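U., I forgot to send this yesterday:
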Amino acid sequence: MISLAIVGAALGGLALGVAVREVWLHVNASRTRKMADDVLADAYRQSAAIQKDAEIEAKEHTYKRQLEVEEEARERLQEVGTTEKRVADMESDLLRRQQHVDEREDEIDADQKHVEVRNRRLGLREAELAADRAKLTEELSRIGKLSVEDARRQLMAQVAVESRHEAVQTARAIEDEMRDGVKKRATTVLATAIERCSADFVTDNPVVLVKLPNEEMKGRVIGKEGRNIRAFELLTGVDLIVDDTPEAILISSFDPMRRDVARRALEALISDGRIHPSRIEKMVETARAELEETSMQAARDVVNALELGDIPDEILGMLAQLRYRTSYGQNVLQHSKEVAMIASTLAAEIGENETHARRAGLLHDLGKASERFQEGDHVEVGLNLLRKHGEAPEVLHAIEAHHEAVESRTALAVLIQVADRVSAARPGARKDSLDSYLRRLNRLEAVASTFPGVDRAFAIHAGRELRVIVESDKVNDDEAYLIAKEIARKVHAEAQVPGQVQVTVIRETRASAWAGRPT
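Result:
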């Protein structure tokens, strides 16, 4: 039993051992598999890490290689750029050298030409020297036969000829230099004078427009059966144009003084409102008085602006009349003032008397203030008046010579000539056609004024009508008709105007009386 028990125990132990061994084997197998899995996983991880490291290393190697290649390429590019720059520098240097060679060749050619010219000149000089030597030899042989006095005289004559030739050449050079300098200086002085004395020129319009407060005023200006407008035209010598222009009347006349008188009188009548022949006559007289005063003030302003001091009243009155005188369309007073300013500036530049220059410039056309001056005689008219008032001889000579009627003997006379021409030559300052037109109308009035009994004569309608006012106590109706015929015949013979001219002689009789006691 004990053996069975032992055997049983042994078998049990064996079975237990086998079971334990199987358990241990199973556990060991599981552990081994786990370890194998771990080893395999670790191997995979290591393999992946190795592969990653290899990839990284390969990338790094590739990147480094790429950097090396780029660096090599950059270095090669730098070398190429350096080489290209060196080649460009070499080409530029070659071009400069080629240019220098070309310039040197040109210089050599020029030097060769110069040498050839010099050789030709030397040849000519040698020929001249040979000729001179022959002449000298001949002269020496001739001198050997002369006495000392003869030789001295011939030597002095030769020296005098040579000295005179050199003096003429020197004088000519000095004269040319002075002429150029004087021309430049004169140009500068004239430009300065013109710049300082610049003035605007306004074209004179023969028609003046007068504004009316309303259309009814036109009828009042015309008057019953036109008596007001006729009286106005007779007293002023203008032509009133009443047309379709709304609220306006036109005053037409070639004479600026008549236009201004008519404008002032008509504006005063319109402002006053009382328009009839006697009122018109009073307003016209008032306008003439105002015009004379404003003209005198304009003359005083010019004299004060030129700082000429006291001017005799008679001369001042003549200057005032120049305000309404024109020469080739240029206002004579404005022209005289400008000539005075230009002459004064020129005198200051060359050291002449500025006061005399201003006086001569202002008074040089004083004779044109005469009512019936002829072209060319205004100088004598002005001189006679200025001599009477004791004007300075220098000023009188400058005025007398400003149209070159006499030879200029002083620098002042030349300055007045220059200033007069500068003022007249301004673009737009003068118009020949306008002056010819005005002179033609003046001739018409002058022809009519020569007849006895004629009080006033007005050329109107652009010279197509000559309106003559006769004195009623000296000319009767029949004589008025005869005067019209005679004036027409004389106009046709002397005035030489184009087209036809209507001569209208007006004889008006007025009677007036006073009522009441004088106050």
